[in-house]
Amino acid sequence: MDEAEQKPHQSYSYDHARLEGRRRFLRFLIRYIGVPLLAKIDQVEGLENVPASGPVIVMMNHIAFVDSLLTLHLLKRNIVPLAKIEVYEYPVVGIFPRLWGVIPVRREEVDRQAIQQALTVLKAGEMILVAPEGTRGKSLQRGKEGVAYLASRSGAPVLPVAIEGTPGFPALRFTKAWRGRGAHFRFGKPFRFRAEARRARGEELRQMTDEAMYILAAMLPPHLRGVYSDLSQATQDTIERPG
Q1: Whether residue 112 has pLDDT greater than 70
Q2: For 220, which DSSP code?
Q3: pLDDT tens column, 188-211
């Protein structure tokens, strides 16, 4: 991530008011059409842990396409997801991330523009949604350092969200997927990285990332913990909890 600090950023101005009309319409579609018809939610825990205001980095594991959509549905605050730039090119559904103002990320490089956009949204006091693995998978893969970088530079708390039961969705209501179990969401308690990590680089960012991922792993059942299965390896040397 050091490159992101060494080279100039493309200017980016985040205008919540300009986007809010579109997002209100999209939230209506998600709440009353998208989720009721295409995804089944069985259980939601820990919504009381979601901060009522201020910048927040929402960190989720990523199993299925609908994970981000359902997280947007459950959170009542405005939230700006980061997503791979390819979602803008999806037939038909690609229009929705454009309308929402999703931050596109080029995953094969240090995307300085995406970093700057995310920091600008956090500076405006809003939430961003990040899947630190950078891709979907059946169980946790090694997290990338983006969450640690953004959290350390912004000072924003990280809200871990553990998701299970989303494979098979989206699926039309009354099809086979709906006869099985639905999605289960757990919202954990937010945490911050210690103040001395504000300029973390290299191995320190790696440690911060792994410590955050172990927090997420502990919220998941063993079969979804993947490379973070051995919780005895978890440390919290760079992390602090609100008093």
Answers
A1: yes
A2: S
A3: 999 999 988 888 889 999 999 999
DSSP states of 45-106? E-GGGS-SSS-EEEEE---STTHHHHHHHH--S-EEEEEEGGGGGSTTTTHHHHHHT-EEE-
Q: Please check whether residue 75 is in contact with residue 208, taking contact to mean a CB–CB distance below 8 angstroms.
A: no
CB atoms within 10 A of CB 121: 26
The tokens for 70 are 């359902």
Residue 124 has pLDDT above 80, yes or no: yes
What's the CATH fold of domain 18-240? Glycerol-3-phosphate (1)-acyltransferase (3.40.1130)
* 161: DSSP letter: E
With 0-12 / 13-18 / 19 or more C-beta atoms within 10 angstroms meaning exposed / middle / buried, residue 233 is: exposed
Burial of 88 (0-12, 13-18, 19+ CB in 10 A): middle
Q: Which of 146, 185, 183, 188 is nearest to 166 (CA)?
A: 183
Tens-place pLDDT, residues 139-179: 999 999 999 999 999 999 999 999 999 999 999 998 988 99
Please choose, from the candidates 89, 66, 42, the residue with its C-alpha nearest in 3D space to the C-alpha of residue 136: 66
Query: Which CA distances in Å does 210 have to 1, 27, 82, 213, 217?
Result: 16, 33, 20, 5, 10
Q: CA 235, CA 114: separation in Å to the nearest integer?
A: 29
Q: CA-to-CA distance for 82 and 48, rounded, in angstroms?
A: 24
Nearest to 56 by CA among 113, 10, 6, 123: 123
